[in-house]
């Protein structure tokens, strides 16, 4: 058994791999059915009618203990132990993944709904928290080791192989303007294969060498070790297929696309040749999020054994053991045994962002997060990673350059291409070409039959696609099978619509020449009354007289109301309702008797009121300015006079000024004139028509009382408004 230990560790750790399939390829918009493995929503609104996978495989290795120049490993004379670079730690890790996809297909079942069915065989192996110093010490056997003492803690390893039959459904969930959201769900039937695992609990080992007899050196250990598998490997180390070891799993995901140019893909404006733009990638930015591998397989025939590994062994004991169980049972104590176990899938969160930089050039950022605990018994999962992938993609060709930071193996760079029915690539090929200490490698390849959505051909551009066009090189309407209609008389009206096939005529008259049915020199096409003669000026119709007042509507300002010709066909008005028509009314807005031409007469009462108001206008002594002391009262009197005068628009009034006899007669005359004009100007300012007013000054020549008394002189200092007659 001794000589098999280094091989075992080499296979488990040095050639273990990241659980990541098709690195750099699966975010291609033309990845087809492979893309459903990472996000089931991706197949909705795809660029495929259908995509059939014939066969594809992906494998990968990753560890953080051994680094090699990968392409030297295959050369003759390569010594792994001396030429590899060992990076031991207290907790080294490794992962392994192989994924074979069998016959699978996807297709669009409706414009917004897609379906995929796939078959898949998978193998994932993990080894976590293994002490690298111990591995380096015992790789040649205990007899080649030096003294050591290591606390191994809780090392953990698991390997699982199984098969899947999956069905995925995806649909467009929301679409409005630039926002586009789709979702998908995968349900998987799982068939168990091989499952094996080992788990340590507080394990410590130390070695004391024997310089006289190396094989008698003592390996002292303590702690617990649990080993188990999908069957009782202790009784039978040949694999036994168990059809009853099965389970179910599922994936789900969402994809959001930002489509700023959504108006360019408006289906209402799509031509038949556009095929509803199904062949185009319409997003500027795409974001995807999914959770994969939720589920488990129930191994009913599994066996789990836990051993207390407190004890001492030598190299000779290891050499004499037939197998692992023989070694454990002979040298350690089994403390528990159980049967039946559920093995969970490697559940993970996957996210990506895809940017359409320009035309067919894209930049993708994606990553995985493992959701399986490192310390879980029989727990295995993927490695956390982040990948940046620039790519060029078209319908029949893609080229991509993934650059990845892996949880254990660090940075790596690769390349891949898709050409028609074939794709091949590696996420680490470029870094492995130059690195002298590669800690990971991966590859993927496959063959498929893609059937793409595409634009239809329309050679003559008539909107009838070639496969439905009876005249592919000559444009014609769809209703005539894509062929042009005939036009015998060459009048631009097709025979199918032409009522006069052999005589040219306008389209408006069904291809027949126009007539002049009423003989008024206007052809029927421009004659508004083709059956009744009328003047050209009225478009061939007779002039109407709607209200029958003898004034034709064209000259009638009131065509629906009878009136006189003198008033342009409108009835004569009497706005002030005084019985005098406005045309004869000198005062059309103020009622008055006919004998006064419709204007009101100035009454004695009106004149008396004017006299009262005028005598209450007060001036500054010896001046023609209003008295400041009684300015408010005077203004009110002027307003009252204005309101009286506006009722007599055709009457003429005089504003007369008078003084007493005190002082110089000439001065009194000028003062009376100035005061009369001042009152007239103030009334005009308030809105009285200037044509209705004049002003006069009479000095002291017309006293109304004796100037010998103060009371008499006060009466003589006055302003009067008198009626002079009509204008």
From TrEMBL:
The keyword Glycosyltransferase does not apply. InterPro entries: Bact_OuterMem_StrucFunc, DUF5723, OMP_bac, OmpA-like, OMPA-like_CS, OmpA-like_sf, Thrombospondin_3-like_rpt, TSP_type-3_rpt. Residues 606-727 form the OmpA-like domain. Residues 1-19 form the signal peptide. Its main location: membrane. It comes from the Bacteria. It is found in: Cell outer membrane. It holds the Pfam family DUF5723. Residues 693-709 have a biased composition (Polar residues). Gene3D superfamilies: OmpA-like domain (3.30.1330.60), TSP type-3 repeat (4.10.1080.10). This is DUF5723 family protein. Keywords: Cell outer membrane, Membrane, Signal. The keyword Membrane applies. Residues 693-712 are annotated as: Disordered.
């Amino acid at each position: 058994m001794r000589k098999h230990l280094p091989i075992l560790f080499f296979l488990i750790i040095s050639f273990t791999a990241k659980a990541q399939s098709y690195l750099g390829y699966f975010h291609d918009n033309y990845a087809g059915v492979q893309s459903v493995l990472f996000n089931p929503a991706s197949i909705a609104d795809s660029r495929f009618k259908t995509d059939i996978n014939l066969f594809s495989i992906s494998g990968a290795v990753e560890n953080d203990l051994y680094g090699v120049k990968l392409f030297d490993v295959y050369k003759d004379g390569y010594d792994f132990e001396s030429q590899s670079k060992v990076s031991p730690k207290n907790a080294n890790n490794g992962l392994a993944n192989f994924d074979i996809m069998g016959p699978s297909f996807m297709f669009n079942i409706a414009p917004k709904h897609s379906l995929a069915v796939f078959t898949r065989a998978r193998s994932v192996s993990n080894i976590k928290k293994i002490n690298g110093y111990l591995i380096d010490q015992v790789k040649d056997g205990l007899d080649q080791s030096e003294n050591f003492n290591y606390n191994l803690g809780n090392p953990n390893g698991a390997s699982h192989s199984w098969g899947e039959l999956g069905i995925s459904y995806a649909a467009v969930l929301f679409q409005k303007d630039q926002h586009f959201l789709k979702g998908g769900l995968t349900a998987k039937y799982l068939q168990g294969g091989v499952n094996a695992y080992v788990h340590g609990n507080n394990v410590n080992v130390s070695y004391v060498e024997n310089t006289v007899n190396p094989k008698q050196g003592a390996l002292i250990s303590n702690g617990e070790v649990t080993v188990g598998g999908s069957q009782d490997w202790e009784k039978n180390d040949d694999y036994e297929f168990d059809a009853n070891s099965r389970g179910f799993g599922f994936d789900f995901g969402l994809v959001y696309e930002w489509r700023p140019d959504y108006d360019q893909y408006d289906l209402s404006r799509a031509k038949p040749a556009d095929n509803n733009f199904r062949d185009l990638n319409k997003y500027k930015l795409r974001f995807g999020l999914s959770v994969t591998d939720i589920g488990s397989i129930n191994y009913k025939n599994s066996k789990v054994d836990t051993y207390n590994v407190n004890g001492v062994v030598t190299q000779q004991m290891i050499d004499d053991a037939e197998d692992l169980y023989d070694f454990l049972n002979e040298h350690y104590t089994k403390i528990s045994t159980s049967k039946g176990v559920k093995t969970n899938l490697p559940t993970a969160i996957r996210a990506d962002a895809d940017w359409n930089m320009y035309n067919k050039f894209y930049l993708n950022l994606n990553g995985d997060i493992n959701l399986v605990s490192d310390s879980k018994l029989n727990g295995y999962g993927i490695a956390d990673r982040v990948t940046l992938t620039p790519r060029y993609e078209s319908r029949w060709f893609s080229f991509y350059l993934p650059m990845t930071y892996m949880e254990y193996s660090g940075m790596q760079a690769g390349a891949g291409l898709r050409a028609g029915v074939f794709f091949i690539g590696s996420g680490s090929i470029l870094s492995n070409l130059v690195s002298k200490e590669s800690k990971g490698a991966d590859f993927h390849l496959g063959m498929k039959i893609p059937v793409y959505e595409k634009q239809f051909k329309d050679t003559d551009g008539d909107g009838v696609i070639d496969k439905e066009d009876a005249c592919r090189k000559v444009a014609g309407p769809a209703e005539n099978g894509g062929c042009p209609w005939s036009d015998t008389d060459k009048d631009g009206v097709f025979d199918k619509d032409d009522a006069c096939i052999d005589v040219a005529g306008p389209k408006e008259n069904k291809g027949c020449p126009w007539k002049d049915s009423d003989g008024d020199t206007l052809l029927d096409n421009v004659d508004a009354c083709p059956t009744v003669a009328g003047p050209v000026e009225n478009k061939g119709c007779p002039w109407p007289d709607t209200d029958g007042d003898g004034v034709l509507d064209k000259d009638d300002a009131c065509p629906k109301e009878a009136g006189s010709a003198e008033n342009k066909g409108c009835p004569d008005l009497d706005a002030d309702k005084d019985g005098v028509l406005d045309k004869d009314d000198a005062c059309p807005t103020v009622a008055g008797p006919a004998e006064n031409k419709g204007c009101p007469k100035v009454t004695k009462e009106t004149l008396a009121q004017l006299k009262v108001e005028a005598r209450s206008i007060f001036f500054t002594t010896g001046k023609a300015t209003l008295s400041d002391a009684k300015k408010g009262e005077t203004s009110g009197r002027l307003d009252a006079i204005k309101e009286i005068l506006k009722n007599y628009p055709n009457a003429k009034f005089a504003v007369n000024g008078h003084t007493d006899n005190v002082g110089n007669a000439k001065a009194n005359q000028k003062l009376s004139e100035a005061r009369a004009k001042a009152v007239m100007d103030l009334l005009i300012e308030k809105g009285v028509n200037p044509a209705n007013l004049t002003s006069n000054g009479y000095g002291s020549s017309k006293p109304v009382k004796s100037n010998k008394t103060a009371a008499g002189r006060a009466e003589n200092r006055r302003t009067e408004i008198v009626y002079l007659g009509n204008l």
